[in-house]
Amino acid sequence: MTATGKGFAALGNHPGKLFAAIGGLSELLGGLGLALGLLTPLAAAALIGVMINAMATVTGAHGLWETDGGVEYNVCIAVAALAVAAIGPGRLAVDRFFRWGTGGWAEAACALGLGVVAAAIPLSL
Fold first, then answer.
1. Which of 22, 45, 83, 89 could tie 111 with a disulfide, CB 3.0–4.6 Å?
2. CA 47 to chain centre
């Protein structure tokens, strides 16, 4: 955590350890949420936010393709998370009992909007 915190601090996120913990938890909980189909729009928003932040701070300067260190991989993860929010988590998901468990435009818009806001906050500090 210390080394990752130093990396985040070098990118301009102070305190680095706090932002490293937030980023790590966002990736972990967002991934688990999508895998389990639990709070799918929020899980997608967490992953979208982390990927936008990664694109803006690390990979954006390297162009599009992953072979050059570009944004390709980050875009793929963000689009996949947005797609899951839009089409719904599936029949075996925990969310199937809730209104947002079917997916749709509102869920996708919520995931994208919250992801953009979640990325904008640390980028503006």
1. 45
2. 2
